[in-house]
From TrEMBL:
Residues 24-274 form the EAL domain. This is Diguanylate cyclase. The chain holds residues 736 to 1016 of 1016 of the full protein. It comes from Falsiroseomonas bella.
Amino acid sequence: RAKARGRGTFCRYDQAMGSAALRRLGLEAELRDALAREQIRLVYQPVRDLAAGRVAGFEALVRWSHPGLGQVSPAEFIPLAEETGLILPLGELILRNACAAAADWPGATRLAVNLSPVQLRSAGLAALVGDALRAAGLHPRRLELEITETALLQESEEALAVLRELQAMGVSIALDDFGTGFSSLRHLTSLPVDRIKIDRSFVSEVGSRADCRAVVSSVASLARQLGLATTAEGVETAEQLRLVQAAGCTEAQGYFVSKPLALGDAVALLRQDRAQRADAA
Ligand code: C2E
Ligand code: MG
Ligand code: MG
Ligand code: MG
């Protein structure tokens, strides 16, 4: 028992737990409120096609600007939303808003939306996605859903069947943060996946560590032979971009390509990108 360890220990322990719980309770109520008022917005990070040199699509990333706390990171509030079940209305809001935004983008520009494993396990996900696409007038081929490798490895046959159902509708599936879980090669051939997103932890060391360079090029080459696309995440320098391209990654994402953008800036970038290509042609 904490008490038996002495008063000092007990107090520190109790205070730490108390403030974490308070922050958590407070944030939960705030999150509920923000959701009701739709005070949560999306930003869009470009993904560049390395062969064509053009913007292939955008990943929608959720942002919560809290009046008192400032920017609360999704790394903090998504797990909280998952624990409290708020991820279901939040995830639906994100999906519907992102699909509506992407419907106005020119051409076949892809929209990637992150999916929580809680959403994957919820009843009627495929129907919800279908409805969001129809309501927005977005073709299913333009939507990609990202699920982390760690999450996907824990999923049941039922959850994998939902992903196959989504794929049958034309939606593609990306394995996010690849390399941080423990995928066996067997998984790569059996999981319903169209793209591998190589985790930033490998990409950020691709210029400084030969072992990370070997991982990136091996994953890219394996993916190519399995017919999967590869995105290098977290590309921050020109050298990293050159190296992930040389390693055979098909796409790159990261601050060197662009930081996540407000919707208006994303659309402006897309127009500029297409105009440049029309000039070059
Ligand atoms: P993720 O899906 O792997 O998203 C990439 C994260 O890396 C984003 O952080 C992005 O801003 C950041 N990033 C992009 N390029 C760079 C770079 O060059 N350097 C560095 N240091 N970071 C870079 P963000 O937006 O804070 O999101 C963190 C995580 O939160 C996401 O990781 C995703 O797992 C989760 N998340 C974000 N939005 C959503 C959402 O709408 N739904 C769900 N379920 N999860 C989300
Ligand atoms: Mg992602
Ligand atoms: Mg990722
Ligand atoms: Mg990540």
